[in-house]
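This part of the workshop introduces the protein records we will be handling. A record pairs a protein's sequence with a compact description of its fold. Comparing a sequence with its tokens is the quickest way to learn the format. To make this concrete, we reproduce a full record directly below:
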Amino acid sequence: MSDLPTYVLERVFDAPRALVWKAWTDPALLPRWYGPRVETIIHRHELKPGGLWLGEMRWGGNSHYQRVEFTEVAPPERLVWLHSVSDADWTIIANPMMADWPRVLLTTVTFAEEDGQTRMRLTWVPHEASEAEIACFSAAMAGMDKGWGAGMELLAELLTELQA
């Protein structure tokens, strides 16, 4: 697996790990930062191995559906899931905006407490992907910080608000 392109996002939040974990796992808080500049709706959120997180992002009359299957949930240290684009019935589909986008991404998020702050590390790796999917993912990696970065800014604001 080490030869697969891996997107890595690291961020230190000025908040205790338990609070950062809550912001990542509470379906009432997730829509406040996940999917920046869109309306995020959590249709289902089962925080357990084998549990599903079914989300919809709406903007400009369009909907984009995501299906997440948790494979590991280790509070408050680690989340692992299989991340896919889906249709409105939660069936995994090809990404309508990028035909060769990987159908499944292995996502790992870790949370480490350091002097009252939390170091979050997210990795995204194509899972059981074709060569075309791996190439598409690799080519798109440079732009991934834009969306994730905007979400991390919103998350940092939310964490500040929750501690006020």
Q: What stands out?
A: The first strand starts at residue 7 and ends at 13. The domain at 7-163 is CATH 3.30.530.20 (Alpha-D-Glucose-1,6-Bisphosphate; Chain A, domain 4). The beta strands are 7-13, 39-45, 52-59, 62-74, 78-86, 105-114, 117-126.
